[in-house]
Specification:
It catalyses: a 5,6-dihydrouridine in tRNA + NAD(+) = a uridine in tRNA + NADH + H(+); a 5,6-dihydrouridine in tRNA + NADP(+) = a uridine in tRNA + NADPH + H(+). The protein is of the alpha/beta class. Helix content is 45%, strand content 15%. The protein has helices at 23-32, 48-51, 56-60, 68-77, 90-103, 118-121, 133-146, 164-172, 196-209, 224-234, 244-247, 261-279, 286-289, 292-295, 302-309, 315-330, and strands at residues 11-14, 40-47, 80-86, 108-113, 151-158, 178-185, 214-218, 238-241. The protein has an 8-stranded parallel β-barrel with strand order 1-2-3-4-5-6-7-8, surrounded by 5 helices.
């Protein structure tokens, strides 16, 4: 069954993000979500070149790890998990798609044609494919041929300039199930405001050319309610959340308005536990520090705790810093 065919509208998804949406953080998001408020989760970016390299494969495949505890939550909460892949060689897309279908439990595959990072783009990958429509087509066809898994693409409205109509029309001719559109061009990176009018233009093109393809809007969605408003205003089938999760880890629990200090610190501790159990010494612990600011805000002496946490180098030091903060708060 292709989940894109019967996914609810509006639907919400958490964007694929480098060193963010690994299995440990996805599990935390699943723990905090309200029933029915999140439908899709994405992996970190996974390089097809790395996956197909005899040595690089072992260094890259961790991006496709799914903890058993995450699998349980995905099933319980009826959330689909999609592997996002990137590169520029259609044959390696084919091989990587086969690996994902045969060796993992992902529900779908997403092709990254939107990442704007310069060292990726200069190699002709991700958003650089907007300027290479023929290669983009080859990549999509190769991935589709490799597997029956549902297939989607994430992209932008242009490379150096806005080209919504020709580029999105080209993608709508492809055998894909969904298209996520970030309302900026590559040149903007994350600067300026996302242009949702261009996303709405893509919806109009979809309605004419390929009514069965779902359109997901992405860019500057500040809250769950804001997402609902954008669905209503611009006609998209759903919205994808990126940086918004860093402002509020309970983003997908819109009924939870007041979050206590105790809840924030309990979630920080749980995230540390899951990260440590998952990766131990496989990943640099410093990756986890970027999340600490999510949990340490909005209460007295939060800055002092955050500073203490930024010096930690393992889970035990995090637990100790939290215990010390708890004791000082009681005094």
């Amino acid at each position: 069954m292709n989940f894109w065919h019967n996914i609810q509208t509006p639907n919400f998804s958490l964007a694929p993000m480098e060193d963010v949406t690994d299995t440990s953080f996805r599990e935390i998001v699943l723990q905090t979500m309200q029933e029915g408020k999140l439908q899709l989760l994405f992996s970190e970016f996974t390089s097809v070149e790395g996956m197909c390299h005899p040595v690089g494969h072992e260094k890259v495949k961790h991006r496709l790890r799914i903890n058993e505890s995450e699998k349980v939550l995905l099933h319980q909460k009826n959330v689909k998990l999609i592997a996002q892949i990137w590169g520029k060689d259609p044959e390696k897309y084919y091989k990587t798609a086969q690996y994902i279908a045969n060796e993992t439990d992902f529900d779908g595959i997403d092709i990254n044609m939107g990442c704007p990072v310069k060292n990726v783009v200069k190699n002709g990958c991700c958003s650089a494919l907007i300027a290479q429509p023929d290669l983009a087509k080859e990549i999509i066809l190769a991935t589709k041929e490799a597997t029956n898994l549902p297939l989607s693409v994430k992209t932008r409205i242009g490379f150096k300039q806005v080209v919504t109509e020709p580029w999105i029309s080209h993608l709508l001719e492809m055998p894909i199930d969904a298209l996520t559109i970030h309302g900026r061009i590559q040149k903007q990176m994350s600067d300026g405001l996302a242009d949702w009018n261009e996303i709405a233009k893509a919806v109009q093109l979809r309605n004419k050319l390929a009514p069965n393809i779902k359109i997901i809007g992405n860019g500057d969605v500040e809250s769950y309610q804001d997402g609902l408003q954008k669905v209503a205003q611009y006609g998209v089938d759903g919205v994808m959340i990126g940086r918004g999760i860093f402002k509020n880890p309970w983003f997908f629990h819109p009924d939870k308005v007041e979050i206590s200090k105790e809840e924030k610190l309990a979630l920080l501790k749980e995230h540390t536990r899951v990260f440590d159990n998952t990766w131990s010494n496989e990943k640099n612990f410093a990756i986890l520090r970027r999340f600490f600011k999510i949990y340490t805000n909005g209460f007295p002496e939060a800055a002092a705790l955050r500073n203490a946490l930024m010096t930690t180098s393992n889970a035990e030091e995090v637990y100790h810093a939290l215990e010390q903060f708890s004791r000082s708060s009681v005094r």
